[in-house]
C-alpha cells in the first residue's frame, strides 16, 4: 500500500502544465506551476508548515496555543491545516475585500475570522495587520507568525519551490514569473534560481496597478485583486532579486483569469491571471529556445461569487454580458474615466462651496465625494450627494454651511458602463442614482430617471424594429 500519514506530506512537488491556448503563437514555451494542487489549494501551504515549525522550535508556540495571522485567505487555509494536524487554534484577520467564499473556507476549517477595512493605511489601528497585532497581545498563548516579516516565508521557496523548478525543467528554465504579495515566493525561489544558474535565469515580478512594487514613487491606490501588491515594502521581500516588475491592471488580470478557466481548464484566482498576463508579455519578446515558467499561486474556488460571476464583473465594467442585448451605457452617455460625468469633490469641501460649484455645473444632479483623483477606483468613493440633499442640508438649522460635504454623502450602488439601461436599473433598488464603472474605474453617475428614460427609448426602438420585421 502507498499512503500518507498526513496532508502535510502532500505539500509541494506541484506539476508544470504547458499553456497552449492563451500562449498560442508566442515564440517561447510557457509553463504554469500549478500551486493550487497543494492540499490547502495554494502556494501558501509551503510557508505555513515552516512558520509553525519555527515557532515550535523557538518555544513561542506551545501545545494548545493559538496561531494568529493577517491573511487574504490562502495563508490562513495553510495554517488551519497545519494547526488541525498539530492541535492549535487559529484566529485570522482578513481585509473586507476578501471574497466571502474564502472566508467561508477558513471558517470551515474551524478558524475564527475577524474582518477589517481594506482601504485604511497599514498603521491604522483598524487595519487587518494592526488588529492581528492587538489580538496577539490580548490572547493568552497566542503567536502572531506574520508572513510579511517571517524569514521562513522566502526560505521555504529557496529550499522548496526553487529547487523543484530547476529539477522539473532539467535546468532549462530561462525566465521565472511570479506575482508579488508578501514577496516571499519571488525572493526565495528567485534567489535560488539565480544562484543555481549563475545569474542566467531572469526573475520577473507581476504587480497590480496601485501597488508600491512597480511604482515606488507613485501613489498607492486600491485595486480589486486579492493577495498581491502592497502599500509598503515588507521585510519578507528582497528587492535585489527581481530583474523586472511588470504592472498589470485589474481588467487585464481578471480577463485572463477567466480565460485560464475556459481555455486551459485552470480554475485559478485573480493573482494567477495577473502573473499569466506578465508571463505572456515576457514570452512575446523571446525565442523558441527560451522557457518561461509562471507560478499560479491559488485556486479559483474562493472567487466563484466574484471573478467568475458574470454580474459581479459586469457591474465593475470588466465584462460585457452577451445576454444583455440592449445598447450599453457607454454608447448612450458621455462617460469618461479621465473626466467622470459628475462633480468630483474632496471630503473636506464645505457644503456652501459644494453648492456653489454645483450651480455652475450644467445639469449636475450629484456630487462624487472622494479623497482620490481621477482615474478613481470604486473603493476610493466615499459616497454621492444629490443636489436636493445638499439644498436640504443648507437649510437644516442643525447644520452649518461650513460642514464638510462628506457629512451628507451616502453610499450608492454601482453599475457597469457595459450594461444596458434596463440591466443597470435593476441594481438601483430604492436609490436615486448609481456610480458608473468602466474597467474598474469611475466614469460617471447615472440617475434612476435617466435609466428609466433610456429603457423606455430602447423598448420603443425594439418595438419599431419588430414591427418592421413583421411587415
Please explain how this structure is put together.
Its cofactor is pyridoxal 5'-phosphate. Keywords: Pyridoxal phosphate. This is Cystathionine beta-synthase. It comes from Asanoa hainanensis. Pfam families: PALP. With 471 residues, this protein is of the alpha/beta class. The protein has three domains: 7-41 and 151-303, Rossmann fold, CATH 3.40.50.1100; 44-144, Rossmann fold (3-Layer(aba) Sandwich); 310-457, CBS-domain (Roll), CATH 3.10.580. 34% of the residues lie in helices and 17% in strands. It has 14 helices and 16 strands. The chain has helices at residues 44-57, 74-86, 100-108, 128-138, 152-168, 184-196, 250-264, 270-284, 310-315, 329-332, 351-359, 387-394, 421-425, 448-470, and strands at 16-18, 29-34, 66-70, 89-95, 112-116, 142-144, 175-179, 202-208, 244-248, 291-296, 343-345, 366-370, 381-386, 414-416, 433-438, 441-447. The protein has a six-stranded mixed sheet. A four-stranded parallel sheet has the order 5-4-3-6, sandwiched between helices. Strands 11-12-13 form a three-stranded mixed sheet. Helix 6 (184-196) links the parallel strand 7 and strand 8 (202-208). The radius of gyration is 25 Å and the shape is globular. The protein starts with 15 loop residues before the first strand and ends with a helix. The relative contact order is 0.10. The model has no long low-confidence stretch (mean pLDDT 95).
Brief synopsis:
This protein is an alpha/beta fold and 471 residues long. The protein has 14 helices and 16 strands. It folds into three domains: 188 residues, Rossmann fold (3-Layer(aba) Sandwich), CATH 3.40.50.1100; 101 residues, Rossmann fold, CATH 3.40.50.1100; 148 residues, CBS-domain, CATH 3.10.580.10.
Amino acid at each position: 500500500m502507498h499512503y500518507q500519514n498526513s496532508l502535510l506530506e502532500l505539500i509541494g512537488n506541484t506539476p508544470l502544465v504547458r499553456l497552449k491556448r492563451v500562449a498560442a503563437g508566442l515564440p517561447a514555451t510557457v509553463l504554469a506551476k500549478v500551486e493550487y494542487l497543494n492540499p490547502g489549494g495554494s502556494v501558501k501551504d509551503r510557508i505555513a508548515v515552516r512558520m509553525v515549525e519555527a515557532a515550535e522550535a523557538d518555544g513561542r508556540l506551545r501545545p494548545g496555543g493559538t496561531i494568529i495571522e493577517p491573511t487574504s485567505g490562502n495563508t490562513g487555509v495553510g495554517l488551519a491545516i497545519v494547526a488541525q494536524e498539530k492541535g492549535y487554534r487559529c484566529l485570522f484577520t482578513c481585509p473586507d475585500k476578501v471574497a466571502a467564499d474564502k472566508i467561508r473556507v477558513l471558517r470551515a476549517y474551524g478558524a475564527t475570522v475577524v474582518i477589517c477595512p481594506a482601504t485604511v493605511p497599514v498603521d491604522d489601528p483598524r487595519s487587518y495587520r494592526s488588529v492581528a497585532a492587538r489580538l496577539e497581545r490580548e490572547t493568552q498563548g497566542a503567536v502572531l507568525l506574520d508572513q510579511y516579516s517571517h524569514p521562513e516565508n522566502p526560505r521555504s521557496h529557496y529550499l522548496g519551490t526553487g529547487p523543484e523548478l530547476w529539477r522539473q525543467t532539467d535546468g532549462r528554465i530561462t525566465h521565472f514569473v511570479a506575482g508579488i504579495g508578501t514577496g516571499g515566493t519571488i525572493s526565495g525561489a528567485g534567489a535560488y534560481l539565480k544562484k543555481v544558474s549563475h545569474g542566467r535565469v531572469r526573475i520577473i515580478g507581476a504587480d497590480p496597478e496601485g501597488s508600491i512594487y512597480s511604482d515606488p514613487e507613485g501613489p498607492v491606490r486600491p485595486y480589486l485583486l486579492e493577495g498581491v501588491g502592497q502599500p509598503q515594502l515588507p521585510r519578507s521581500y528582497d528587492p535585489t532579486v527581481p530583474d523586472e516588475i511588470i504592472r498589470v491592471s485589474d481588467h487585464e488580470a481578471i480577463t485572463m483569469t477567466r480565460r485560464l478557466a475556459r481555455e486551459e481548464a485552470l480554475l485559478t484566482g485573480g493573482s494567477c491571471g495577473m502573473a499569466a498576463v506578465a508571463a505572456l508579455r515576457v514570452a512575446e519578446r523571446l525565442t523558441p529556445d527560451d522557457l518561461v515558467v509562471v507560478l499560479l499561486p491559488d485556486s479559483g474556488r474562493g472567487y466563484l461569487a466574484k471573478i467568475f460571476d458574470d454580474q459581479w464583473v459586469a457591474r465593475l465594467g470588466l465584462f460585457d454580458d452577451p445576454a444583455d442585448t440592449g445598447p450599453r451605457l457607454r454608447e448612450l452617455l458621455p462617460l469618461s474615466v479621465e473626466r467622470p460625468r459628475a462633480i468630483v469633490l474632496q471630503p473636506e469641501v464645505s457644503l456652501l462651496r459644494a453648492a456653489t460649484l454645483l450651480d455652475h455645473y450644467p445639469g449636475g444632479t450629484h456630487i462624487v465625494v472622494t479623497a482620490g483623483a481621477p482615474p478613481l477606483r470604486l473603493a476610493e468613493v466615499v459616497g454621492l450627494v444629490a443636489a436636493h440633499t445638499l439644498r436640504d442640508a443648507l437649510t437644516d438649522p442643525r447644520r452649518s454651511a461650513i460642514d464638510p460635504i462628506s457629512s451628507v454623502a451616502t453610499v450608492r450602488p454601482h453599475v457597469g458602463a457595459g450594461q444596458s439601461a434596463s440591466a443597470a436599473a435593476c441594481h438601483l433598488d430604492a436609490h436615486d442614482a448609481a456610480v458608473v464603472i468602466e474597467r474598474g474605474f469611475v466614469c460617471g453617475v447615472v440617475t434612476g430617471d435617466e435609466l428609466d428614460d433610456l429603457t423606455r427609448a430602447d423598448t420603443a426602438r425594439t418595438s419599431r424594429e419588430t414591427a418592421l420585421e413583421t411587415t
